[in-house]
Amino acid sequence: MTETRTTRTVGVLALQGDFREHREMLAALGHEVREVRLPGHLAGLDALVIPGGESTTIARLILSNGLQQPLRAFCLSGRPVWGTCAGAILLARQVDRLDRPGIEVMNISILRNAFGRQLDSFEADLDIRGLAGGPFHAVFIRAPVIERVVPPAEALATLPDGRIVAARQGNLLATAFHPELTGDTRLHAYFLSLAAEAEARPLALEGRP
Ligand code: GLN
Predict the structure, then answer these.
(1) Please, which residues have CB within 8 angstroms of residue 32's CB and are 6 or more apart in sequence?
(2) Residue 114 lies in a domain
């Protein structure tokens, strides 16, 4: 959690969902932001955010726009990729009730809409491993939970009842909540700090959930 001053070129997958909020937060941190809708838009990016929204819709548009393999290749290139909520669902290698393939690169299993109708949205203060400055106020909206994390993936944050809501696997980051909907830029800054790490150490994928 060091590098916040280097200007990076960051893509935000802009097919559906709350990509504008990510764009604004990344721009506020001084980064150049590009919206990604087609494979060619991935060229020249240092990092990529996959926003929240509706994972089935985003997965459908990924397939119809020819983005599935290019997104997988981007994830495997070692550059940082962060999925928030629906984005986290798309990064998981195992998802319940997703009727088409996602990007499937992280060794996590995810349960969609894990909190049910009674609790469509809620907020919680989380201790996030590697994030300095105290608890992070997290906003959950029809959120998933990360049911299993298999190395080299690791859990970064849990709810008080132990359910995992943030995980990392080298350059890949998954959060069940929406940091772009708060005023706290620490997780965006943390995510960009992974770019410096990734430059030194590309990811090797091992194991399966
Ligand atoms: N419930 C949504 C899904 O399953 C995710 C919600 C969100 O991204 N806020 O795709």
Answers:
(1) 7, 8, 9, 10
(2) yes
